[in-house]
Structures are given as C-alpha cells and as structure tokens.
C-alpha cells in the first residue's frame, strides 16, 4: 500500500493493519508532511510512521506506563521520540543537538515512556563525543607545545 500526500511519500509493507491515514485539515497543505497517520491508535506525523512502527515492533508499546492518559498527549511524545530517532538515523547530529535530544528523551522518560534504550544510546554517543573533544584538545595542546619548543 503506497500512501501519498504532496511530496511526502512512504511505503507500508507489513504495517497495513497498523496504519491508517487521516487528513488533518485543508490548511495543512502548506506542510507536505503534515498528514497524521494512525499507528497503534496514536495519530502521528506521516514522516514518523516507519520509525514509530519499527519502535513498536522492536520494543512494544512504549507508552504502556505513560502518566498521560490522553492519546493526543501520548502521540505528541511519540512524535518527539520518533523525531530523535529519525535525526540519529540520518546522522543529523552535533554536540548541541545531542544535548537537546537527551532533553527530549528525558522528558519522555519523565512521562514514563519506556525509552531507556534510546537514553542509553544517547549517553553512549554523548560519551564518545566527549572523548573526541578530549582527544582533540590533547592534540591541539600537544601541537601547540611542539610549536613552542
């Protein structure tokens, strides 16, 4: 089944029973990916459907213990978590963006979404980023001292 709206296309394979497209409103035609799609009862941005469906397959319903009972509030959190995963998959990251992503995931965890897997991954790459900065700093200092000798 190929779902299409404007320039935003995605293909659902085995997910046909999990996803149902819905039109948000005619004003949303400005944003070609503003269509909301139902994934496991949560209406999320179309761009996040493949990622969220994969999260549900791999980790189950990560909202099962969520403090928020509103499906809209849960869907908003799921969109934010999916955005983080999408950015990580596309390598759209920097040190400052990792901090921002950690904050988003921390907020989701505070609401009791099961995102420990994502927190652990962000912690790991954050540590790697810190180590790179240390090595870079050591290298710069070493080069400076060698230049002074």
**Poorly predicted spans:** 1-30
Mean pLDDT: 76
User: What is the CA-CA span between the terminal residues?
Assistant: 68 Å
Relative helix content: 40-55%
Strand content: 5-15%
Number of helices: 4
**Global geometry:** elongated
Q: What is the β-strand count?
A: 5
Largest sheet: 3 strands, antiparallel
Strand order of the largest sheet: 3-4-5
| SSE arrangement, N to C | EEEEEHHHH
Question: Gyration radius, to the nearest Å?
Answer: 20 Å
| Helical/strand content category | alpha+beta
Keywords for this structure?
PLipase-like, about 150 residues, two-stranded antiparallel ribbon, three-stranded antiparallel sheet, single chain, alpha+beta, elongated, about 55% helix
Q: Could you please describe the fold and organization of this structure?
A:
- The chain has 149 residues and is of the alpha+beta class.
- The chain is built from four helices and five strands; from the N terminus they run E-E-E-E-E-H-H-H-H.
- The protein has helices spanning 49-59, 71-89, 95-110, 116-148, and strands spanning 2-5, 8-11, 19-22, 36-39, 42-45.
- The strands form two sheets. It has a three-stranded antiparallel β-sheet. A two-stranded antiparallel sheet has the order 1-2.
- Helix 1 (49-59) packs across helix 2 and helix 2 (71-89) runs antiparallel to helix 3.
